[in-house]
Please model this.
Amino acid sequence: MNRRLLTILLVALVVASLCTWLVIRLVGVRLAASKPMATTQVVAAAKDIPLGAVITKADLTTITIGGSAPKGTILKMDDAVGRGVISEIYQGEPVLESRLAGIGSGGGLAPTIPQGMRACAVRVDEVVGVAGFVIPGSRVDVLVSGNPPGPGGNTEGVQTQTLLQNIQVLSAGTDIAKDAEGKPQQVQVVNLLVTPEQAETLSLASNSLKIQLVLRNPLDTQMAKVPPTAMSTIFTGTAPAPAAPHRATGGGKKPAPKTYSITISNGSKTTESKFATPEGQH
Model:
């Protein structure tokens, strides 16, 4: 066979193979694009559901999402009805297990308390409540003022001390959710999220000391080392000087050791030697 003809046939075969592969690839892409995507029907909020609410069927709807459902998504309405909301759910948002309280926990403040923590109520007034700006979700420091007992039962004057730092406010009055516009409001009781040990300390302090809440930036998580402040510090500008230790009279100098002398005569030569008494030796 003519070599030139053979070369032409081989080139034609390669070109035909490339064209065939390209056609198959394009057809496969078209078929994949026309294939319907898998969808999943999940439970979503039919309206905004506030924190602490108990979900009813009227609060829920179903929506269809592409692909598989995210982990923890509620797929049946019966699995969400009757459960309390521990984090606000917005309209059209899929309902997740992590946003709901456990079955049988109910609604209100209790389901929002994490395990191992406690909600401790503190009675406040207009000043203690930072003029109404302490709202759910705020972070505060707790200050106490009073007369600490001194030696012999005597008081050392009025002092203020930082008792707790970076404490979360669970509720202000009967509200456990933030106001939509963030407006301040006057309340009589503020619930703070604390550990059991902090709850005991706060409860004891509230019986005999005046409590003051100090609002802080939620992003400021640093624990400050603040010493107690006494009334004398405010007027003098300096901390009271510690009492000087008792010293003996005479400037604190040790008395000179007692000595005795012995005179020795040797003919016309006389010498005198001094020795310390046993009381003066160490």
Remarks:
- Confidence is low (pLDDT under 50) at residues 240-246.
- Residues 3-34 form the longest helix (32 residues).
- The radius of gyration is 42 Å.
- The CA atoms of residues 100 and 145 lie 40 Å apart.
